[in-house]
């Protein structure tokens, strides 16, 4: 009889059970473990817990008699209950902690990672050729495009350009409350969702676990069928409008034309290869413009792959980087996603979206939530943990590079060339959030001063010596000398202590 195969809760698609390229044998029994300790240790968003458990239980139902589904306190306990000391295989997990666990077990054989385009050894070879240079995303993205022949015409990119970023930075349409595109795919809840919600309620009542946020109707796919339907709807009805406004924000239209595919991708319900292939096919059929398709391909085959590889390349200690020396604790209102405790409209709106759905798109994450944390000098490790726990698509491999490296610049520039933060003018240009706000994006001091505008200048002053030597920050830092009210700005906004 074949060794059993262990599926983690983010390895739920059919490609994790195929026998090709080092996968498990077709007749291998399957083990899945629902470990309660995962939810005991940390305070996750309730919608995230619901989504993961719903997806796991659905996959177990699909596998039928082939799977042994165990509910246990820990993964070790569950594996012991399911198999004892019998041999088991598992595809390379997605976190350092999970990899340490499976490697510590004598009866576990670790197979190559799946769910990504680039194998680890291929990335190591690419990175090794650049040992003395920074591993920039744009160079990596072009390499992936060539290797996988994505949006290529021979040796050249289609359209003669690798990157259509310049075409994808439009402000939202003036006066519009939405983009007016067809709505995204939304699943219908069923008895599995009812069972999961019943269990979560019981755990909370018993004081075993505590969650953040609201668990309304499930918004994201929890099965392969639902995930494929979501991909097909995005490509057919929403991809064409994606590119131009991908960096824009509308308060009443939080999903804009974004794909909402990060959650099923990160659960393993979709394979990135099928996502980029579907987008490219739409362009070649004339159903979607190149700027939208390239923007989507760059997110999936560029940024997602880049983040995954850097998580492993930088190693387990990367999460402790704190180049800017930020140590302020996260305030309770942020920990609780208490949007009602916040006066700034952009921050309150974004926090409400996180509280209610466990999701916002990349610009509110980076330029509102992340930028606010950076300007306030919050501990980057705590910020990373918050993003991991409160986003339905948040996993350790996702959030450590995204938050430590990009959002909080805590690695001092190993991943990105500058800190990503701004004053209120950027938010005013790229959103409709400032018009109804109590604060003015043009004001740095006083009762109506925008906390992002004042916070931006205070941040630059606090780290002036470091940032003055960064070519991409030289002009911004020099702007401090032109502020006639700098002393007042620092008095109102400078971090104390």
Automatic annotation (TrEMBL):
Gene3D superfamilies: 1.25.40.80, Deoxyribodipyrimidine photolyase-related (1.10.10.1710), DNA Cyclobutane Dipyrimidine Photolyase, subunit A, domain 3 (1.10.579.10), HUPs (3.40.50.620). It comes from the Bacteria. SUPFAM superfamilies: Cryptochrome/photolyase FAD-binding domain. This is Cryptochrome/photolyase family protein. Residues 163-193 are annotated as: Disordered. It comes from Yinghuangia soli.
């Amino acid at each position: 009889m074949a060794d059993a195969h262990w599926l983690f809760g983010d390895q739920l698609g059919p490609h994790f059970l195929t026998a090709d390229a080092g996968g498990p044998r077709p007749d291998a029994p399957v083990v899945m473990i629902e470990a309660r300790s995962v939810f005991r240790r940390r305070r996750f968003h309730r919608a995230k817990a619901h989504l993961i458990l719903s997806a796991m239980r659905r996959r177990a139902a699909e596998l039928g008699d082939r799977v042994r589904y165990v509910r246990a306190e820990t993964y070790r306990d569950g594996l012991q209950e399911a198999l004892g000391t019998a041999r088991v295989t598992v595809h390379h997990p997605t976190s350092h902690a999970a990899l340490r666990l499976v490697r510590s077990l004598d009866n576990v054989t670790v197979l190559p990672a799946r769910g990504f385009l680039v194998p680890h050894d291929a990335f190591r070879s690419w990175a090794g050729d650049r040992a003395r240079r920074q591993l920039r995303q744009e160079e990596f993205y072009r390499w992936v495009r060539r290797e996988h022949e994505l949006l290529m015409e021979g040796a050249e990119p289609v359209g003669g350009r690798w990157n259509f970023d310049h075409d994808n930075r439009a402000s939202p349409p003036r006066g519009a409350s939405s983009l007016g595109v067809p709505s995204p795919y939304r699943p219908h809840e069923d008895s599995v969702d009812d069972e999961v919600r019943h269990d979560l309620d019981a755990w909370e009542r018993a004081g075993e676990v505590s969650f953040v946020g609201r668990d309304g109707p499930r918004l994201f796919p929890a099965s392969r069928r639902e995930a494929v339907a979501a991909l097909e709807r995005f490509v057919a009805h929403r991809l064409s409008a994606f590119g131009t406004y991908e960096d824009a924000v509308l308060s009443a239209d939080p999903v804009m034309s974004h794909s909402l595919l990060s959650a099923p991708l990160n659960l393993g319900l979709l394979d990135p290869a099928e996502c980029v292939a579907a987008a490219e096919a739409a362009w070649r059929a004339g159903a979607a413009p190149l700027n939208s398709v390239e923007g989507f391909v760059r997110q999936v085959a560029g940024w997602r792959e880049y983040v995954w590889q850097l998580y492993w390349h930088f190693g387990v200690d990367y999460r402790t980087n704190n180049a800017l020396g930020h140590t302020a604790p996260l305030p309770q209102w942020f920990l609780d996603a208490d949007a009602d405790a916040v006066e700034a409209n952009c921050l309150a709106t974004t926090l409400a979206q996180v509280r209610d759905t466990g999701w916002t798109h990349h610009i509110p994450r980076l330029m509102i939530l992340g930028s606010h944390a950076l300007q306030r000098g919050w501990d980057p490790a705590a910020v990373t943990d918050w993003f991991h726990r409160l986003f339905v698509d948040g996993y350790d491999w996702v959030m450590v590079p995204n938050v430590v490296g990009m959002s909080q610049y805590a690695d001092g520039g190993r991943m990105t060339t500058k800190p990503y933060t701004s004053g209120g003018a950027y938010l005013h240009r790229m959103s409709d959030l400032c018009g109804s706000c109590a604060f003015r994006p043009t004001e740095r001091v006083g009762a109506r001063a925008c906390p992002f505008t004042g916070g931006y200048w205070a941040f630059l002053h606090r780290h002036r010596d470091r940032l003055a030597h960064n070519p991409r920050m030289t002009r911004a830092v020099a702007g401090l000398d032109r502020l006639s009210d700098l002393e007042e700005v620092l008095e109102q906004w400078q971090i104390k202590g």
